[in-house]
Design a protein that fits this description.
This protein folds into 2 domains: about 60 residues; about 130 residues, Protein Transport Mog1p, Chain A (3-Layer(aba) Sandwich), CATH 3.40.1000. About 40% of the residues lie in helices and about 30% in strands. It has 5 helices and 8 strands; from the N terminus they run H-H-H-E-E-E-H-E-E-E-E-E-H. The chain has an 8-stranded antiparallel β-sheet with strand order 1-2-3-8-7-6-5-4, sandwiched between helices. Strand 5 and strand 6 form a beta hairpin. The longest helix has about 35 residues.
């Protein structure tokens, strides 16, 4: 009789062990399913972004870059009390760029624009396409790098404490890859960006 009880106990233990191995945990299954779904969605969004980027590059390749006259017509007359120090416009059949500096002593506001139109322009501005899709938020002892949105501008903003410089990049209208560098205070930098009338660029 004693042996029968022992055998019965061993048999029950074996059944429980097999049940634990083979039985599915509902919560673990749901977590795995959610993880798989999230990975699939992220992958689809990445592919969609790549497709949109390629389509935009093709669209820009077919456009004609701004002429020197068109860039000149857009130029701001002044930035606060800063004086225009340097102007360089390169206008070619497949690429147009603008470099414009305003300075007053050690204070500066610098504008660099690459027109994404044309074969070379589309290639040079291609890296800017991902700016709007990034979500940066990095802060260190030397400054920060983050994604910001000001009205219609989605930008990558970098601040360097040592030089007190703001470096702001955005891809206006999915065409104009713009970099602003300035050691004005942040509010002044963004106020001046808003006053540049980007909506008139290329019209």
């Amino acid at each position: 009789m004693k042996n029968q009880f022992i055998l019965y106990g061993l048999f029950s233990l074996l059944i429980l062990t097999l049940g634990c191995k083979n039985g599915a945990n509902p919560s673990e299954g749901m977590e795995e399913a959610n993880t798989t779904k999230s990975q699939r969605v992220a992958s689809e969004e990445k592919e969609e972004s790549k497709s949109s980027w390629r389509e935009n590059v093709k669209r820009l390749e077919q456009k004609k870059p701004l002429s020197k006259k068109e860039f000149t017509a857009w130029l701001p007359s002044s930035i606060l009390n800063l004086k225009q120090d340097r102007l360089m416009i390169n206008a070619h059949e497949d690429l147009a760029t603008l470099n414009l500096n305003f300075v007053d002593g050690d204070t500066y506001f610098k504008i660099n624009i690459i027109d994404g139109a044309g074969l070379r322009g589309a290639k040079m501005s291609a890296p800017a396409y991902k700016i709007a899709s990034q979500n940066l938020d990095q802060e260190t002892s030397t400054g920060y790098l983050k994604t910001v949105q000001k009205n219609e501008f989605i930008a990558k903003e970098r601040y360097t404490k040592l030089t007190e410089e703001y470096n702001i990049q955005f891809f206006y209208n999915n065409r104009f890859f713009t970099t602003i560098r300035s050691n004005l205070d942040r509010e002044q930098v963004w106020d001046n960006i808003m006053d540049l009338n980007f909506e008139n660029l290329g019209k």
